[in-house]
Amino acid sequence: MLTLILAEAELERIPQEIHSHPAVISNAKQRQRKPSKILLDASFHHSAMRKKLSEWRRRGRPDITHIFLLVTLDSIANKKGEVKIIVHTRNNEAIYIHPETRLIRHYPRFIGLMEQLFEKKSIETEDKILLKLEEDKKIEDIVEEINVDRIIGFSTKGRRINLLEYFQSLREDGYKDIACIVGGFPSGDYHCNLGKIADDVISIYDDMLSAWTIASEITVNYENIFLCSQ
Ligand SMILES: C[S@@+](CC[C@H](N)C(=O)[O-])C[C@H]1O[C@@H](n2cnc3c(N)ncnc32)[C@H](O)[C@@H]1O
Questions:
Q1: Separation of 83 CA from ligand 1 center, angstroms?
Q2: Whose CA is nearest to atom 15 of ligand 1?
Q3: Do 64 and 214 form a contact (C-beta atoms < 8 A)?
Q4: pLDDT tens-digit map of 27-53
Q5: Can you list the domains of the chain with their CATH numbers?
């Protein structure tokens, strides 16, 4: 089983500091919602963010989570039932994604779904919990509860490896249940001490890639090495 953790994802509701900014009020009016119930999105709230929010350059990026989820849920490894996906947010919420979730493609509707999730804490059908949000979950807590053989952190600062060969050697060493941590932020570094949380921190290319490209490399290589006979 492969567990994918999108860590410190820039997914949050509009913080109180900018509720009264004109750009936020106008966006909230347009959407007929309260500012406190809307997701922070740099493409709409940029002018408010740059004035009052710490780390404004990296915040308000639900698009990263959206594309990451589309790529991972649609992967062959997930279709084979071998992937668990968890999104950890900058405010230490954990979002557990049911592997059979057919995620909305249309970005504005995805935003609406996430806002509903932040409000209700779960999105359910008649027989399944598709999305579940739990508060006060640090990456360390998530890693502890999933209980896997090997935790691998992905970072441009990690040890440079070839991912196919790396998974091959994990398989030869008898590891089956692995977790991969990928940063859900556009720039800057992890807030957590990744080297302490993960058993290994690796880089798979000499340049920075997007979180969803890393996710796609992980799922494809995992499938080729661990699931090819299934
Ligand atoms: C856009 S990057 C975040 C920016 C950060 N400055 C960095 O260099 O990693 C998003 C995430 O993708 C992963 N990532 C990006 N490039 C990578 C690489 N060459 N090797 C391994 N992981 C990478 C990391 O998990 C990173 O946190």
A1: 21
A2: 209
A3: no
A4: 999 999 999 999 999 999 999 999 889
A5: 2-9+61-226 (3.40.1280.10), 16-52 (no CATH)
Half-sphere exposure of 210 (CA within 13 A, CB side): 11
What is the three-class DSSP state of 159? strand
- Global confidence as pTM: 0.97
pLDDT tens digits, one per residue of 168-183: 999 999 998 999 999 9
| Percent of the chain whose predicted confidence (pLDDT) is above 70 | 99
- Of all protein residues, whose CA lies closest to atom 27 belonging to ligand 1? 183
55, 151, 157, 208: which to mutate for ligand 1, most atoms within 8 A of CB?
208
Q: How far is the CA of 21 from the centre of ligand 1 (A)?
A: 32
pLDDT in tens, 65-80: 999 999 999 999 999 9
C-beta of 212 in contact with ligand 1 (< 6 A): no
The reply to whether ligand 1 has any atom less than 6 angstroms from the CB of 216 is no
Containing 182, the helix (H) or strand (E) segment is strand 178-183
Q: Which residues pair with 5 in a beta bridge?
A: 86, 181
Question: Helix or strand or coil: residue 25?
Answer: helix
What's the CA gap between 182 and 150, in Å, rounded? 14
Q: Which residues contact 29 (CB under 8 A, 6 or more apart)?
A: none
